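Practice problem: predict the structure.
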Amino acid sequence: MSTITINAVNHLRILLSEEKFLFLGNPADEKLLQLFLHFTDYDIDKALEKVISYYKLKEKYSDFYAFKRDPKLHDVILKKGINTMLEDRDPLGRRILVYKLANLVYGAHEVHEMFQVDDLWLTLACDEEETQRNGLVIVFDLKNFPWKFLRSFTPYNIRATTAKAESLPIENIQYHVINYGWVVGLLVSLVFPFLKEETKNKIYFHNSMESLHSQVSPSALPREYGGDRPSPVQAKRVKEYLDPQNTRLSDLLSYGYMKKPEDF
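Answer:
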């Protein structure tokens, strides 16, 4: 780590010490601070603002965030294969997270519980320097989307999930929607009013695999999306990607604003 980076981390750590109820490790997690510094091009004031806003949001919508990996809840949802981090990065070095919404089972879990599982994959991805440099690709496969889930698109749920997505401290994120059919128009009308214009410009709708491949190389995609790779096996991805990093994940998920004395 360069002298400039060390100085920036130390400076940010000192400034964050003024946030008395914000716990980011003891001392504040060096690697985490580098994430926010990288996101803001090492503008310390902007990094400070981003850290505070990120964890204030986690406090505000705490039910939509995981504070630990819960095997009795999160691992049960993981088995459904709703979202999976693919094994290979694309040629641009980006991580690829795929949502297969056909695997949703209405009523099996609360909406906020399913969104907590996002944190398992994305928290670790954001912790990777290569992801910080190159970014993320998120693919939403709407094939056989269970229409009953439209009942879950309440203003509160949409506000919480869109705000959470837009708070990720990764500069280069693209969202790709495939196999969408008739439901996409309704989803757009429900969700887009809650999105920032900057986020809308990162969303791509594809009516063919060729269209998807113009943005995401098939070399890193599974064959079901016209790619060169086999379909991911969820249990294998959990074992390879999540399980070995459980300790780091536990630390990262625990960070946030602690209860103030008057809250007890």
